[in-house]
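Hi again,

Forgot to attach this to my earlier email, sorry! This is the prediction with pyridoxal-5'-phosphate bound. I've pasted everything inline since the attachment limit keeps bouncing my files.
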Amino acid sequence: MKYYSTNHNTPDVDLREAVVHGLAPDKGLFMPERIERLPEDFYRQIASMSFQQIACRVAEAFFGEDVEHDALERIVCDTLSFETPIVQVDPNIWSLELFHGPTLAFKDVGARFMARMLSYFIGRGKDRVTVLVATSGDTGSAVANGFLGVEGIEVVVLYPKGKVSEIQEKQFTTLGRNITALEIDGTFDDCQRLVKSAFLDEELNRKFRLTSANSINVARFLPQAFYYFNAYAQLRGAGEQRDVVICVPSGNFGNITAGLFAKRMGLPVKRFIAANNSNDIFLEYLTTGVYTPRPSVPTLANAMDVGDPSNFVRVLDLYGHRIDAIRADISGARFSDDQIRQIIADTLQRTGYLLDPHGACGYEALRQGIADNEAGIFLETAHPAKFKDRVEPIIGREVEVPARLAEFMKGKKLSIELSADFGDFKSYLMQR
Ligand SMILES: *Cc1c(COP(=O)(O)O)cnc(C)c1O
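Structure tokens for the complex follow:
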């Protein structure tokens, strides 16, 4: 399978190159040249298949030409060491719980898959790749844990000193082995600047094979399609026959784009809703037809604080830049912090289900936008305990912390402090 750049200014590449490089040389995002429609037979049997069986079939459609069958199956099965159950919240609304992985957020799926596929492509023992990742919290933990112990790959996580919660910090500073955490005396933007400068630095690129692990990488975003198929299978397995609507709390739009790919592969989803917080650039685009990126504003659902969603160009490309086609498949919604607080408190009281601030946007968008003849699934993208300090004041009681999250808290922080100066960062890397 060939991959083209959304900017159409780069020769097509194969999967290996798309995964190792992440971003295309013309700064576009890679897209597969074909999206295979899965046969009717598959959809007839899907309700009786396991998550791993479903995911293997979907993975084969994406990657089957480029990765040997057995190796691909191993990558998929190693990645999916946990389930993504649906839990009924209302008579016609289900939560797709994507927080049962090691760092309690959906990014575990993409990060674990990408780590294994990258390792497959660089081959054992020969080459080494250094993954640089700047994080304001969640990406760092998913990537660090996803790549932990994967042969041939070193991960360097940069995070702003004093600006991530203790729970988040512990998830990527206590691991050791092939994971190094750099505590930067600066902001998240400084961390991102250091990473970008490193990718452009000739000397560093001569010494290291550098790559990034954010959702622009096809090996991180495509595997997210797996759980859309699995959610549909569970809903049908439970005897639910209404048309399916899926709502995705969105930031960089990598997650929802994977769902749109699933629909293109024939998954019978009637339509999607993209739920935003106050960073409602996409909703504004749907309403006005004009896309106007702007600086992000901080909110309670901070993993969605994005002012210029990186995967928006993939949505445009997938729909041939036709806004009517986009509007036919996706609608939008936005919620302020006050509304998010209200939704979390009300929903807990009314249904007993505790939402995290991101899932709260997804749940409410669905509740407001769904018809009686539809069945809705919202993606619960993280466990509420990850945002304990924000959720507890809203509900007025403690949030129970799952054992695997509590386990991180016991670890010893092993980070290295650095200034926000590129010279310091570079000499640190050169000495490694
Ligand atoms: C990353 C993240 C999102 C946003 O996902 P995108 O793929 O960037 O749209 C939503 N919720 C949580 C908890 C996240 O960590």
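The pocket of pyridoxal-5'-phosphate is lined by residues 105, 107, 138, 215, 249-255, 303-304, 358, 381-382 (CB under 6 Å). The first strand starts at residue 2 and ends at 5.

That should be everything now.

G.
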